[in-house]
Amino acid sequence: MTLKVAIAQMNIALGQPEVNKQTVAQYAQKASEAGADILIYPEMWNTGYALTDLPQLADNDGERSRQLLARLAKTYQLNIVGGSVATMRDGQFFNTMFVFNQLGQQVARYDKAHLFGLMNEEKYIAAGSQPNTFELAGVLSAGVICYDIRFPEWLRTMMSSGPQAILYVSAEWPIQRIAQWQILLQARAIENQAFVVAANRVGSDRDNTFGGRSLVIDPLGNIVAQGTDADEMLVTADIDIADETAIRGQIPVFSDRRPELYR
Ligand SMILES: O=C(O)CCC(=O)C(=O)O
């Protein structure tokens, strides 16, 4: 089965959800025109890392973001991995991914599990603790957010139940660590024998310049498509999920695992 995946490598206006909603809508139209089956957005696209302003800016239970993403999914018949958005729930803030199928139905919701201390994220945001696997466009997938990628055991926990793709969203990956971003993503693809589709933002905020280089990687770790390091762009690629089945058959790392040794 061949799927066209698209990544919205966008800039994010710090603390301006209404501006960012317009950008998100524009990318859905572009992805539809490009014939995409799946569109993926970056992390925290509603607010950027305006962490001190979350009481004013965070989306109550993600409602406004969910309404927009559902509408775009339905209008353009796109499967959408809604990056992540700053949400508020029961008096706490979360960094939350919502996923919608092309009928506009929500198929997943995930709160980022590993919070990034280097940016004081844990001082403002509460960590999630549930894994995130879902079926999208007929492909069982796992979805994780930014710093989560540095915890291979977290992804392995999810990938052991059968997903064939890792759908990964980031925003705060700065230009000075962009080589690490690429290596980590290629490693996650190879060790999990899975396609990786990874969105990173471009542009700058008060503290950082972000490094783009959104990536589509095959299960052997080859780069199928990549964004530039600085430009806003839609990155697209065709991926053949059948390839991944063949690769898992050749080197059966999942059945060769010895979980009794891993403590
Ligand atoms: O792991 C990194 O280098 C970046 C992580 C990050 O920026 C985040 O999780 O927000």
TrEMBL record:
Please name the Pfam families in this protein's record. CN_hydrolase (PF00795)
Domain CN hydrolase, by residue range, is: 3-241
Q: Which UniProt keywords apply?
A: Hydrolase
Name the source's superkingdom: Bacteria
Gene3D superfamilies listed in its UniProt record: Carbon-nitrogen hydrolase
Question: Is Glycosyltransferase among the key words of this record?
Answer: no
**Gene Ontology MF term list:** hydrolase activity
Concerning its family, UniProt says:
Belongs to the carbon-nitrogen hydrolase superfamily. NIT1/NIT2 family.
This chain belongs to the protein called Carbon-nitrogen family hydrolase
